[in-house]
Amino acid sequence: GPGQAEMYAGLQELGVANGEDLKETLTNCTEPLKAIEQFQTENGVLLPSLQYALPFLDLHGTPRLEFHQSVFDELREKLLERVSAIALEGKVEERYKKLEDLLEKSFSLVKMPSIQPVVMCVMKHLPKVPEKKLKLVMADKDLYKACAVEVKRQIWQDNQALFGDEVSPLLKQYILEKENILFSNDISFLQNFFSPSPKTRRQGEVVQKLTQMIGKNVKLYDMVLQFLRTLFLRTRNVHYCTLRAELLMSLHDLEISEICTVDPCHKFTWCLDACIREKFVDNKRARELQGFLDGVKKGQEQVLGDLSMILCDPFAINTLALSTIRHLQDLVGQDTLPRESPDLLLLLRMLSLGQGAWDMIDSQVFKEPKMEAELITRFLPLLMSFVVDDHTFTVDQKLPSEEKGPIPYPSTIPEAFTKFLQENRIACEIGLYYILHITKQRNKNAFLRLLPALGKFFDLAFSDIFLHLLTGNLTLLGDEFALEEFCTSLFDGFFLTACSRKENVHRHVLRLLLHLHHKVAPAKLESLQKALEPTKQSGEAVKELYNQLTEKLELRKPSPAEVTETPSMELPLPTVPTPASR
């Protein structure tokens, strides 16, 4: 067929006979058998010793094709080994000259499946495949597919669009994987989005594939960073910032100095990576990070755009915010004001750079955002006063109360606190982490006090990362779900206010109820089931979760038969606490 002809097309150029030649010989001859014998002699394997061996194989019924094929396979293996050896021996220019000559001779056979591996192997070992050959490979889908990544890199570095087509599905997959973790049906305060260590995350499929595609090629690395910046600008999706840091650290793990030494964020990211591993910024690393920020020279401010993207990675923000809460607690114990703690000020400075990443890259104005003095002189002291209220209440509870009645837990929040939450993103971030902190401590009083303020947190309180962490921590307050007041504050006061306009909040509430429905008072559960019913506009995920919840609740309803019959003479069984049903 035409495929055959094309496959062997290159042989004639090399003066090697092919099927077409045989056909011609046979068409124009008088004695076909003699012609075939002559063709075999002329085009067979030229080894005198074979003259006697071949008839012997014929007697054993081994087809000549099989014999030639096995000789051919042997030779090809040897040739592949030889090519790889040439690539390593002798003077650089000489070895590449040899490989280039070999490529010239063999390229015309690149379509022959049996020879293709050899041609591909030669190209793989050439640091610069001739432009003309690259163009031919690029123009042919099958050849392009068969190419080694070393050759593809040479094609990609001058074809951003083609490289973009290869990278794009990987980036989509990456974002999807992150969202699947945030919306996972497993809810736990022990295992959450931030549990995997940086090293573990970098072993992920997408990071590994991108690392492999980039190799040591700075140009391709820059292209990927450009894609990530563009996508971050287009979508505001912070997971692109995580990938930016993971990619750099993955190349760092492989000690690819060609790239690490030219990325101005390398040392900063490396140091921050160690903090993320410990989920804390200690004093020594704080000094180091500060050194990098203070060391940004005039004329190099553009690096701030990159640093801000590294700091906007949710794993970085998580570490900075957790460290901030720990510092604030320490300050309460030491009777120190926030403005007197250089470590705390540095944490705020980095939080503010991370929070400002999108604006900085969008506006292309590379300077550190100004820190509001009031954040430090008024907001943080207010937060510290909550910690103090909490201590005081706990101590009061323990004092013998003769004449005084029980002291109520302070329930109001200063107006100024709420105002900060509405106007300052960093105040918001720290406030949210304080709420996560008290929930994790099972501190119901403090949680209920701050809950009314939650709706005031920009939309940060409705972000997937916060809701993922909050739902996990709320499992620690499971028993409180039996109380009307607690449920009303949490659901009516917070979750349900946003469900109708925010699909993701709807999903997180359903996740939480799937996990804790058996703890909720039946009357409340019924009204929640009504309130959470999907609308026509609801997406598939919401409908799916709602159906799962409905099924679970159906199973819980006792059947009428069970309610009426009580077994008469049975011995009472010892009561064994049942494990909470999932």
Topology:
Elements: H1 2-7, H2 9-13, H3 19-27, H4 32-43, H5 50-59, H6 64-86, H7 92-106, H8 116-124, H9 131-139, H10 141-146, H11 149-156, H12 160-182, H13 198-201, H14 205-214, H15 218-235, H16 239-253, H17 257-260, H18 266-278, H19 283-294, H20 303-312, H21 314-334, H22 342-355, H23 357-363, H24 373-398, H25 415-423, H26 425-440, H27 444-454, H28 464-474, H29 484-499, H30 503-516, H31 522-531, H32 540-556, H33 560-564
Helix pairs in contact: 6-8, 7-8, 12-14, 12-15, 14-16, 15-16, 16-18, 16-20, 18-19, 18-21, 20-22, 20-23, 21-22, 21-24, 21-26, 24-26, 25-26, 26-27, 26-28, 27-29, 28-30, 29-30, 30-32
Describe it for me?
The chain has helices spanning 2-7, 9-13, 19-27, 32-43, 50-59, 64-86, 92-106, 116-124, 131-139, 141-146, 149-156, 160-182, 198-201, 205-214, 218-235, 239-253, 257-260, 266-278, 283-294, 303-312, 314-334, 342-355, 357-363, 373-398, 415-423, 425-440, 444-454, 464-474, 484-499, 503-516, 522-531, 540-556, 560-564. By secondary structure, the chain is an all-alpha fold. It is built from 33 helices and no strands. The longest helix has 26 residues, at 373-398. The protein starts with a helix and ends in an 18-residue tail after the last helix. It has four domains: 45-155, no CATH class; 159-263, no CATH class; 274-369, no CATH class; 375-401 and 409-551.
Q: Structural class of the secondary elements? A: mainly alpha
| Mean pLDDT over the residues | 86
The amount of helix comes to 55-70%
Q: Strand share of the residues?
A: under 5%
Shape: elongated
Q: Quick one: biggest sheet?
A: none
Evaluate the radius of gyration: 35 Å
What is the count of β-strands?
Answer: 0
Into how many domains do the coordinates divide? 4
- For the termini, the CA-CA separation is 63 Å
Count every helix, treating DSSP H or I runs of 4 or more residues as helices: 33
- Report low-confidence residues grouped into runs of 5 or more: 565-569
InterPro entries: COBRA1
Pfam families: COBRA1
Organism: Manacus vitellinus
GO molecular function: translation elongation factor activity
